[in-house]
Amino acid sequence: MSLAKDRARDFAANRALGRIALTAEYGRGITQRKRLHESGGLRMHFPGARARELLGMLINTAGGIAGGDSYDLEIAAGDKARLAVSSTAAEKVYRSLGPDARIRIRLSAGQDASLAWLPQETILFDGARFHRTIDIDLADDARLVFAEAVVFGRTGMGESVAHGFLFDRWRVRRGGALIFAETVRLDGAIAAKLGEAAVANGGAAIATILIVPGNAETIEQLRALSSEFRGEVGTSTWNGIAVARLCAADGAALRYDLITLLASLREGKLPHCWFH
Question: Could you tell me the pTM of the whole model?
Answer without folding.
Answer: 0.93
